[in-house]
Amino acid sequence: MGKPAKMPKKKCCEDKPRCGRCPLRALAEGNLPPGYTVKKRRLVKVGKADLVLAKSTRKAA
User: Fold this and answer.
1) How far is Cα 33 from Cα 6, in angstroms, rounded to an integer?
2) pLDDT score, position 8
3) Handedness of CA 20, 24, 26, 30 (dihedral sign)
């Protein structure tokens, strides 16, 4: 038996070539866990994707 697959990292490190646990790479290959997606280079749950987008676009005062 092989090892179980690891979860992708929570945030993409933007390295080239992409690392093995990159969420962008997992999205492109179709290997994301069920119920997860990638928004703004971050791994998020599908139900909370809009919340992450609203929080990450705020600007510091």
Assistant:
1) 10
2) 86
3) negative
- Cα 13 vs. chain centroid, distance in angstroms? 10
Query: CA 54, CA 24: separation in Å to the nearest integer?
Result: 20
DSSP sequence for the chain: --PPPPPPPSB----SSPPTT-HHHHHHHT-PPTTEEEETTEEEEGGGHHHHHHHHT----
Query: Which one is predicted more confidently, 15 or 9?
Result: 9
For the chain, how many residues are written? 61
Average pLDDT over residues 46-61: 67
